[in-house]
Design brief:
This protein is an alpha/beta fold. Helices cover 45% and strands 16% of the residues. It starts with a strand and ends with a helix. It binds nicotinamide-adenine-dinucleotide (NAD) and zinc ion.
Length: 357
């Protein structure tokens, strides 16, 4: 099945679709020099026949797995390799791996000879439901994450839910946190489906995962296409993330992104209820579903409130020195008041943080 994201490029989400990578690559990238740029660990699984398809026989470049590779040094090394191999304007790139592969290989594709086409092959749940759609590519610098990059849409996204069977548990659960966010911001029915199918999702049942990936991609694509350059409603994708980013910074990234998002969703729902924006009971349902998915809803260790507040004060949504949040009004619905973000008083933020401490 093709989920048409943005009406521009196809998103194939289908068990077994990875087996058709060669023909999809020819269809969307053409017959020029195709290079797979892959996360080294995922590439090893692929070549060992553990990713639900035969090994990749074409050209490939790998990078060490992990966020540490998402930098300009790797971007330059990979770009130079393509130049040495004489890849021309008719070349194309296949990005294989999690969000790091998509962002890094996507940025190589965005800049190589001023831009060549690429296909996203997301293999982590986070990449499947979030990072592979939206057209953001880029790398980290020592000044912070994702500070250098470009908008470059893929020619296609090829997502095979079966590849998720080898994903480490912590990464898998982290991806579920983003799916919970999608239900909360846009679709009460989808949220209810996750509540009912939590068992199947935890078992990584293929059918359940296919539905999850499709629905999440549809939601992200719909929000992004309505607001590509992030001026208004796209802020709702930031639900839970104002607190999450502060938690990641204050714990020096000891919490994974998904764990931070889980805690952030709970705290921001509490804030929304306390400010009278969200219906009572919103936080309770969100928190129960996250817990069911094995995600944290309370901090295991004490985190300095002051450190969290100062990290939030640097958030790019802020206006006139007030910390702003994208807040839900109910499950499946975000508050559109004040241009999709609400300024909150420090005392309200402190008591919301108390609910996760
Ligand atoms: N561009 C965007 O819109 C966007 C959105 C969200 C996140 N991101 C970025 O995505 C990155 C995080 O993505 P991530 O969580 O996928 O991290 P990741 O790419 O590092 O993957 C997580 C881990 O899972 C492993 N892995 C991936 N697929 C696997 C599989 N099928 N089997 C076994 N192991 C597998 C990887 O080797 C890695 O160790 C961050 O850099 C973040 O900034 C980008
Ligand atoms: Zn996120």
């Amino acid at each position: 099945m093709v989920t048409h994201a943005l009406g521009r490029y196809p998103v194939y989400i289908e068990p077994g679709v990875l087996g058709r990578l060669e023909s999809l690559s020819e269809e969307h990238l053409g017959r020029g020099h195709i290079t797979m740029i892959a996360d080294g660990a995922v590439h090893d699984l692929l070549q060992a026949g553990r990713l639900a398809r035969p090994r990749w026989e074409g050209d490939a470049v790998t990078f060490p797995a992990g966020e540490g590779s998402k930098n300009r040094k790797e971007w330059a090394r990979i770009t130079d390799l393509l130049l040495e191999r004489g890849v021309g304007r008719d070349g194309g790139i296949i990005a294989l791996g999690g969000g790091v592969a998509g962002d890094l290989a996507g940025f190589v594709a965005a800049t190589y000879l001023r831009g060549i086409p690429f296909i996203q092959v997301p293999t982590s749940l986070l990449a499947m439901v979030d990072a592979s759609v939206g057209g953001k590519t880029g790398v980290d610098t020592r000044h912070g994450k994702n500070l250098v990059g470009a908008f470059h849409h893929p020619a296609a996204v090829v997502a095979d839910p079966r590849v998720l069977l080898t994903l480490p548990e912590r990464d898998y659960r982290g991806g579920l946190a983003e799916a919970v966010k999608h239900g909360l911001i846009a679709d009460a029915e989808y949220f209810g489906w996750m509540e009912r199918e939590a068992g199947a999702l935890l078992r990584r049942d293929t059918e359940a995962l296919t539905h999850l990936a499709r629905r999440s991609v549809e939601i992200k694509a719909e929000v992004v296409s309505a607001d590509e350059r992030e001026t208004g409603r796209r802020a709702i994708l930031n639900a839970g993330h104002t607190v999450a980013h502060a938690l990641e910074q204050a714990t020096a990234f000891e919490l994974s992104h998904g764990e931070a998002v889980s805690l952030g969703l709970v705290a921001e729902c509490a804030l929304a209820e306390a400010m009278g924006v969200a219906a009572a009971g919103t936080r309770g349902r969100v928190s129960s579903l996250l817990e069911r998915f094995g995600l944290p809803v309370r901090l295991a260790k004490r985190v300095e409130e002051a450190a969290l507040l100062s990290a939030m004060a640097r958030d790019k949504k802020n206006r006139r020195a007030r910390i702003r949040f994208a807040l839900p009004s109910a499950i499946g619905c975000m508050s559109a008041e004040a241009g999709w973000t609400h300024a909150a008083e420090e005392v309200a933020i402190r008591s919301a943080l108390a609910t996760i401490s």
